[in-house]
Amino acid sequence: MYNLPKEEFAARRKRVLERIGPDGVAVIFGEPERIRSNDTDFKYRAGSDVLYLSGFVEPGCVLVLAPGHADGDFIMFVRGRNPEAETWTGRRQGTEGAIANFGADHAHDVETLWSELPNYLRARKTLYWSIAEDPEFDRSILKVIKELRATRRKAPEAPLEFADIRDIVHEMRLYKTPAELELMRHAAKITSEAHVLAMRTAKPGMMEYELQAAIEGHFLRNGAEGVAYNSIVGSGDNATILHYTENRDQMKASDVVLIDAGCEYHFYAADITRSFPVSGRFEGAAKDVYEAVLEAQIEGVASVRKGLAYDELQTKTVRRLTQAMIDLGALKGSLDQHIEEESFRAYYPHNVGHWLGIDVHDVGSYFGADRAYRALEPGMVLTIEPGLYFPAHDTTIPEALRGIGVRIEDDVLVTEGDPEVLTAECPKSVADIETLMNS
C-alpha cells in the first residue's frame, strides 16, 4: 500500500459507488504478472486503477464495487496465503489482509473469481468494466453474462447494459487531491535533485549510461520505487530522437545532452526534461536553439491558468517555435504558411505536454462533453515540454543546427491563480546551468 490514508481510498470508492448507482456493479481487473524471459518475470507494477481505488500492490487483484450487496459494497479477489509460494516470492496479504488493511467488506481467493463473480452481477442493470482493454478478461466476463442469460425459467439475471468504468475513474484521476499533490511534490523534488546531480556529473568522454546510473541511483537512494518511465539520456544527434532509450554512446564536448527522466514515488510520477552542453558552456547554435526553446517553455508555463482551453497551450507554443525555426534558418517563408501547412512538425513533432499523475502520461480526456478541448481547472497537473530537434541527416537546414536536440519540461499544477511549478527546483536558465556545471 502506498503512502495515502485509508480514508482517501474509501472516499474515491464512495464517489464511484455513487456514480454507478444502486443498479450498477463495477469490476476492475488488476494486471497479471508478465514473463520477461524463460522463467523470469518483469518487475511487477500494479494496475493504476487498482492502485487508485485500493492501494493494493499485489498481482492479479480484482476489485468489485457492488452497491448494497449483502457482502458489502467493496469486494476484493486476491491471491490466497501460501507459505510455500511466499518463501519464494514474498509475503501476501491474503483475504484477511485485504479486509484488515485495504478496507474490503469481503474478500475471496482470486482462484475463485469466475465461480464467485456471478453472485455480484445478478439482478444488476448495468455492468461497468474496462471494455476492450484485455481480450482475455472480455471473453471471460462475457461468458459469465451468457451463462446468466441462459436461465430460461427464471427472471433474467444478467446485466442488461454495459458501460466503461474508465469514463468514471479516469475523470476522477484527472483532479488531484491535497494528499496526492504532496506525493507528487516529493516525486518532483527527488527528480529535480537527480537532474542537478547529472549536470554536476557530466563530463566529456563519459557514457550516456553513466548519467542514467547517477539519476536512477538517486531515485532509489531517496525512497522512490524506481523510474516512472524508461530514462532518456541522448547526447548529440541522439537528442533528436524523441524516445531514445539505448543510452549507450559516449558524450563529446561539442554535444548537447537531453535527459528526460522521472521517478515514481509511492506510485506517483514526476517527469522532467533538461538539456545542457556536455562542456558546461552554451555556445553558438546550441545556445540559440536552447534559448528559443526556453522562451517558449517559460511562456507555456506562465499560460497555465484556470479557464484556458488546453489546445491554446499548443497554439501559442507552435507559433513561437515556428518563428524560432525561421529565425534559425531551418524554415524559409511566412510564419502563417508554415503553421497552416504544419511544416513545423519536421522539427517539433509532439504536443506541448500531457496530464501527469499515477501514470506519467496520465488518464483523463483532453476534450469536454461538447467535443471541444476542455478548459484547465484547479487540481489538474500537466507537463509543459516544448522542444526543437534538428537531425544530423537533414541537409536542408544550416550545418550548425544539425545534431542538436533540445527539450525543456516541467510539471505544473493548475491553481485558482498563478500556476505552481512542482519542478521549480530544477535549474533551466543558461546562467544557472552553467554556474552549476562549472562550480
From TrEMBL:
Belongs to the peptidase M24B family. It is an enzyme of class 3 (hydrolase). It comes from Microvenator marinus. Pfam families: AMP_N (PF05195), Peptidase_M24 (PF00557). It comes from the Bacteria. Its cofactor is Mn(2+). GO terms for biological process: proteolysis. The keyword Zinc-finger does not apply. It catalyses: Release of any N-terminal amino acid, including proline, that is linked to proline, even from a dipeptide or tripeptide. GO terms for cellular component: cytosol. The lineage of its organism: Bacteria, Deltaproteobacteria, Bradymonadales, Microvenatoraceae, Microvenator. SMART domains: AMP_N. Keywords: Hydrolase, Manganese, Metal-binding. GO terms for molecular function: manganese ion binding; metalloaminopeptidase activity. This is Xaa-Pro aminopeptidase. Residues 4-138 form the Aminopeptidase P N-terminal domain. The keyword Manganese applies.
